[in-house]
Design a protein that fits this description.
By secondary structure, the chain is an all-alpha fold. Among the domains are: about 100 residues, Serine Threonine Protein Phosphatase 5, Tetratricopeptide repeat, CATH 1.25.40; about 190 residues, no CATH class. It has 21 helices and no strands.
Length: about 425
């Protein structure tokens, strides 16, 4: 069979010219079907985010050669890009069964585990692949990322050091070194590696995200908060939720104890205020320091579109809060005080909008925030309109909202925790 179009398509794929590669591979299919052609065409389509077509061609590749690992390997890559981790894992495990000595297969398996926050499983997959190919750069970087997440900084540093010595011009390795240094609390050295990664590959999002965090970590307060964020990120999701629920319950217990035992109040109330301040800062630190970078001459160029939008939303919330505070100071209106408090707390779910992944998680978080904003506006309007001119039902509604708003805002926070971790399937 004349396979000149396949070879051209393969070369174009390696050069990242996916649209041109698709044309060549489709010409090859017109000559005759092949599991290799369908598989490579599937990968090209996946890189252009044409996922339904890509999946069809990957499945056709498997149909033509079910005992060849390539089709299963291709399907696993596509399912990983579509955030369908269970299907990706099933496909790559079948590829490994058919070809157990292909290191690339373990790179996909490790990526699936890493995406699912299964750090030990990711490390095990990386180690298995490196036994086959000790110099596999992707597996080396996967191993380093898993070790960082597991808190083994020394082993991670050694792994990344070996990778850099082997390929000092690899942008992913420099980005991983930068993140490892951030985990170690050294944003200044991390910045050097992120800059080098972006010099080698200006489109590398992993490095751009890192350089933003390194810029913010120049501030000692954010550096401390970043250490907390990175520590929390290393924990399984169930543990993170358990810690937050435990802290909330503990806060309620301490609050009740401070009320019931006045002698302990001078000790317990400062603890409660410190806890509230920490929670507020842990939620607002990310968008707040993005806002500060938004005002920085260099930093504004490092921010992504979503980070700039998130900073703008927070700025609007803070401006509205300040307006209500001025209103309260000028008039002494109690509703203005409630508005100040509610709008300040509303900044928490609002700041989560652009942290949520684009798609249904972000749309849901936006809807929750807008509903809460509408309820806060009802309270504020009740404070502006003279009581004599207010319908009785409107006044009662505003009073009920004042009583229940703290619970609604708390519910919004738990929704935000869930939505920020949700990844929509494609």
């Amino acid at each position: 069979m004349n396979d000149v179009h396949f070879h051209r398509g393969s070369l174009l794929y390696q050069q990242g010219r996916y649209a041109e590669a698709i044309g060549e591979l489709q010409l090859q299919l017109a000559v005759g079907e092949s599991f290799l052609t369908h598989g490579l065409l599937a990968l090209c389509l996946a890189h252009l985010e044409k996922f339904p077509e890509a999946t069809e061609h990957a499945q056709q590749s498997i149909h033509l050669a079910p005992d060849e690992s390539f089709g299963h390997y291709t399907l696993a890559q596509i399912m990983l890009l579509r955030n369908r981790l269970a299907e990706a894992q099933a496909a790559i495990e079948e590829a490994i069964r058919l070809a157990p000595y292909d290191a690339d297969h373990f790179a996909i398996l490790g990526s699936v585990h890493l995406r699912a926050s299964r750090w030990k499983a990711a490390l095990e997959a990386a180690n298995q692949g490196l036994q086959i190919d000790p110099e596999h750069q992707v597996l080396t970087n996967l191993r380093a990322q898993a070790l960082v997440k597991l808190g083994d900084r020394a082993a991670a540093a050694a792994t990344i050091g070996e990778a850099l010595a082997r390929r000092p011009d690899d942008p992913y390795t420099h980005a991983n070194q930068g993140w490892a240094l951030l985990h170690q609390g050294d944003p200044f050295k991390a910045m050097e590696h992120f800059r080098e990664a972006l010099r080698l590959n200006p489109e590398l999002e992993w490095a751009r995200l890192g350089i933003v965090e390194a810029l913010k970590a120049r501030n000692p307060i954010y550096r401390w908060m970043l250490a907390y964020f990175l520590w929390m990120a290393r924990l399984p999701s169930q543990v993170r939720v358990g810690l937050m629920l435990g802290a909330f319950v503990g806060n309620q217990v301490i609050g009740n104890l401070a009320t019931q035992v006045p002698l302990l109040a001078p000790i317990l109330w400062p603890l409660l205020f410190a806890y509230f301040g920490f929670v507020l800062m842990s939620w607002l630190a990310y968008p707040l320091f993005n806002l500060l970078l938004r005002l920085d001459k260099f930093g504004r160029h490092a921010l992504s579109t979503d980070q700039r939008r998130g900073a703008n939303v927070l700025a609007a919330c803070l401006a509205a809060t300040l307006g209500c505070l001025v209103w309260f100071v000028a008039t002494g209106n109690g509703v203005a005080l409630y508005g100040t408090i509610f709008l300040a707390i509303l900044a928490l779910p609002a700041s989560a909008i652009y942290i949520c992944t684009a798609g249904w998680p972000r749309r849901t978080m936006t809807a929750i925030t807008l509903v809460l904003l509408a309820l806060v506006l009802v309270v504020l309007i009740a404070g502006i309109i003279p009581e004599a001119r207010q319908p009785k039902q409107f006044t009662l509604t505003a009073v009920q909202l004042i009583k229940n708003m703290p619970y609604l805002l708390l519910g919004a926070q738990f929704a935000a925790i869930y939505l920020m971790g949700a990844v929509p399937k494609k």
